[in-house]
Amino acid sequence: MSEHAFILYGSYQNPYLRAVRISDGLVFDVAAGQLAQSPAWADTAIPLGAKNAVINGWPVDLPELPYGAYDLQLYDAAAPSQSDAMIAGWRLVMPHKLLVNPTEFPLDVFGRIRTTPA
After folding, report:
1. N or C: lower Cβ tally within 10 Å for the chain?
2. What's the whole-model pTM score?
3. In whole angstroms, what is the distance from residue 46 CA to residue 62 CA?
4. Are 115 and 108 in contact (CB under 8 A)?
């Protein structure tokens, strides 16, 4: 059994994620299973499935993304569309599945970005 990358909590109806590699702006095309320069929006939606009632959230299993840093974007819409408003975003570091809020990087006492757990 594989470990979930994280559990998404909140009051969403149909959440989905998108992964954009920050080094070159390529977007993960779920349908093709690879990074692409201009894939169809619907093909880039990483579906989360149904909410798990026991844990009251969505267990998130990420696809096998190439190594690198990504902006992981959260949307909530019945059918993925380019007009959907992004709800939240995190910085994702692969292959470690390390998530951080890009506006709230954890800093150590010397003001350096901490890359290990507290």
Report:
1. N
2. 0.81
3. 8
4. no
- Can you tell me the distance from the alpha carbon of 52 to that of 50, in angstroms, rounded to the nearest whole number? 6
DSSP letters for the chain: -PPPSEEE-SS-SSEEEEEEETTT--EEETTTTEEESS--GGGG-EE--S-BTTTTBEEE----PPSEEEEEEEEE-SS--TTPPP-EEEEEEETTTEEE-TTS--B-TTSPBP-S--
